[in-house]
Hints:
The chain is α+β, with helices and mostly antiparallel strands. It has five helices and 15 strands. Strands 4, 5, 6, 7, 8, 9, 10, 11, 12, 13, 14 and 15 form a twelve-stranded mixed beta sheet that branches. Strands 1-2-3 form a three-stranded antiparallel beta sheet, with no helix packed on it. The radius of gyration is 28 Å and the shape is flat.
Amino acid sequence: MEFDPAAGSLKCPYCGTVQKISHPVNQGVEELGFEEYAHDPGASKLGSLSAQALEVGCTGCGSVIAFEPGTFAGVCPFCGAKIVTQPHSADPLIAPNGVLPFSVTRAQAAASVSQWLSSRWFAPSELKRMARPEGIHGVYVPFWTYDARTYTQFRGHRGDYYYETEMVTALVNGRQVTERRQVRKTRWSPAAGQVGNEFDDVLIPATRSINSKRLHDLDPWDLEVVCPYEPAYLSGFQAQRYQVPLTDGLGEAKNIMASTIQYTVRQAIGGDEQRVDQIRTEYEDVTFKHLLLPVWIGAYRLQGKVFQVIVNARTGEVQGERPYSAAKIALALLAALVVIAIIALLVDR
């Protein structure tokens, strides 16, 4: 049986029998302790996507793709290269503990790609094959989420505006005129203190195979309905092994947290302007989740470069890269010149 996005259940592709995927009652997605896994998780903390999962590596882009036996087409969904290496049993990894199941079907995703392509006038013909259902692949992409409580000590200066009356010479109607004006100035005073923040589900892509900007543009994800991971969701789809280690993901999450911390510090300093001279932040109670989020993706190579089109398999949002067809642009210019020549001829007559 395969997972059917329309039914939200397992479905037999031959007879149509539907079987719901059951979850333990009132069980949410567990937060995992960062320190327990970051440095030496040990065999007891590692797992796999499923007992039957196989893995295959792409020599073109370096992606490692996991799949259930019999569901892999032999083409890398991320770069379009033919997979020539042999599948093997999946290596242990920090197993996913949450998943957003596919809810956009392959046909719906293909229709969204077709609509997206309709506004790309000068896209090459090769791109059109992605508008067909067989041109896209359903893949679960790995993400980390991080929770943390932060305490930040800061030093800086608070700037308060005040006004003084000064005689100012200005040019009015070609004449120099001296007049009184209120001139704004800033009074600076030292400021120091501590602020705290709590962060929940800071989302970090754990893949390097998809353009990070395109992936961020697929937001938002409805993380509030993430399900506890169940291998049945993988049936009929593929999943990518994470390429960003857990510790590196936290570093990227801290970069995102930094802007909120900076804003909180400036709010604490107050005044009309702020100067932040020193910040020292401590991170406590850091936890994480390993999530699989669903995308439909198509990739092809043109002139030595890989182009991707990806669809958020929850919302239908499409993001993609497109080259320009030199032949189509040349034909359009030629057609425009012909039209101009005809108009000129008619005007001359």
